[in-house]
Amino acid sequence: VGVAGIGAKLGSKLFNKSQHTVILKLDDKGTGHSSGMLRVGDLIVRVDKESTAGLRADAVHRLLQGRAGTRVKVKYLRPPSKFDMTCTLLREVGTEHILEEEHTGWKRA
């Protein structure tokens, strides 16, 4: 059994003057997408019991990865809302994370 993920492409974005890990893309076959819970643009604020505050996208990537078939709890924000949401996803092989660093701010409509 190998390393597995939730099928998310991660990056970094500036939101409320702080750097956060953001979901840039979701693989159609990954549990992040198929669960219907996560969306592109969501900010990951906690993985299991670990806060992502101050962590780079690659560190959050490592937190989301684990043994195939295990569950991972993800707490996230969906801007512009300030309320967090939580979902539990199954890690699957073939849906590992792809990292992309971006340093741009959120644009408000």
Ordered list of secondary-structure elements with their pairings:
Elements: E1 3-4, E2 8-15, E3 18-26, H1 31-34, E4 43-47, E5 50-51, H2 57-64, E6 66-67, E7 71-77, E8 84-90, E9 98-99, E10 104-105
Parallel strand pairs: 2-9, 2-10
Antiparallel strand pairs: 1-6, 2-3, 3-4, 4-5, 4-7, 7-8
Gist of the model:
The chain has 109 residues and is mostly beta strands. It has helices spanning 31-34, 57-64, and strands at residues 3-4, 8-15, 18-26, 43-47, 50-51, 66-67, 71-77, 84-90, 98-99, 104-105.
Task: Name some characteristics of this structure.
109 residues; mainly beta; 8-stranded mixed beta sheet; two-stranded antiparallel ribbon; 11% helix; globular
What structural class is derived from the secondary structure elements? mainly beta
Q: What is the terminal separation in angstroms?
A: 45 Å
Helical fraction equals: 10-25%
Order of helices and strands: EEEHEEHEEEEE
Residue stretches low in confidence (pLDDT < 50, at least 5 long) are: 95-109
Count of distinct strands: 10
Mean pLDDT: 82
Number of helices: 2
Main beta-sheet strand count, sense and barrel state: 8 strands, mixed
Global geometry: globular
- Estimate the strand proportion: 35-45%
Radius of gyration: 13 Å
